[in-house]
Amino acid sequence: MTEGIEPLLSLCLADSRQSYSAGDELICEYQIDAVDPADIQAVEASVVWYTEGKGEEDMGVHYFERRLPGDADDGDLRPMRRLRTRLPHSPLSYLGAILSIRWCVRLRLFVRRGREYVLEHPFTLGAVPAGVIQPVIVG
Amino acid sequence: MARLFRLLEKKRGLRRTGSNLMGGVGEALFCGAMFLLGVLSLTALIGVQVVDPDPASYAIGVGRWLLILVMASFAVIGGGGLIWTVLRMGTSAERRGAMARQASELDLLREAIPRPRHYPAVPTYEGLTNSPGIELAYRLPPSQSPGWRLLATTIFAAAWNGVSCVLVVWAVGSHLAGRPEWFLTCFLAPFLAVGAWAIRYWLRQIWLDTGMGLTTVEISDHPLYPGREYQVVLAQHGHIRVKSLQLWLVCEEEATYRQGTDIRTELRRVFEQRLSHHTDFRIEPVEPFQASILLPIPAPAMHSFHAPHNSVQWKLLVRGEVEHWPPFERGFPIVVYPGEATLRVERSAKVGRHALRSHEPVVAGSAGAKV
User: pTM higher than 0.90, yes or no?
Assistant: First the structure.
């Protein structure tokens, strides 16, 4: 690995979108730089939801891919790669009182000596409004 | 300013503030030491017995068997913990999650129980639609069966008062024998008070469950979708004079977390709407109260959500005040699916309606966080 320099992880959602409807296709490109290809042990890209708040964290993996140097043509996992996945109908992003549900694309790089680097790109799924829902007036 | 480290505070949850790697190494060392201690001690015990057999030391009451049991448990727990820690190290949470998802998709039980395929983390509703209603499509089951609560109360009251009786006999015996146990006598007062409270609660529970009469809620359709309206029939049986009977639509968030060795659950009501309110009427056994009520689900409502430690639960809540009876509440869970209004996002919207405030937006090109 290039001594003294942290690996550079890049993650970019297509059209720079921040919000997705359920069933939309999420397209994301990621790239790794400033690291010797021989130092890279594995790269994991995933689309996950997780909870935040008072309770223990729950996490769900919607999409996951793990690539090893053997999976790349020349053993180099650094070049740009595109992932695409169709998003599910739930759980929708949510900002509640003691519970929040968040979505993100997560890129995890494993390098030599057990070191890991993570980059996340959050996005929202659906349009559940934050705060108090107004009761429906009947009649 | 950094928060002061509180020595007497229990650690909350499984979150780590330090390095995951160091934490893993620490766990592995601890489990490894435990395993070694167990194995070496067992080897020594068995070796001594082989070299110099002493059957007397294995007699009942000497404690050698207990020592072997403790050391074997050290070896098993330490070895198991070591294997678990080593397997977990170097495996990301996402990879573990993906493997768990694959395993759950192969689950035979899952195939037997129909689950919403395109709605992950939305609870199943098969238990809510297997009882047909008389007026409407389904009769909803109560969230907590009164029988289980009564059974739990009965066991607690019986066990507590059984122990109380033994202690009372002991204390009275000591006084009659002229060697009064004053500490036990003083200790008995709060003990008996709790026993009396348990019996009172038990009797109240019997009274409520047997005398109040059944509350039933029927619904026109299930699962429910935000933005739509449904029909509900509320029925209350019994021989009572009702001061007030209300039906509420309620949404609650539930969060479970570990604090030290305790598991705590916090419930927060985030939405409630009164759907009906009936006052001052009489119910006869031959003529139960019945009301048809409109149930609108708010269009922007969050759907039902269920994960191991967190959930969003919707339910219909019946609150009653009856003459000469304690007030009561009975809940009937429902499952709300994501609605059209919340599934779709305006394509023109650059930023979601609730931006992820606790995260700094990560732009392409920035360096990743080292973990």
Answer: no
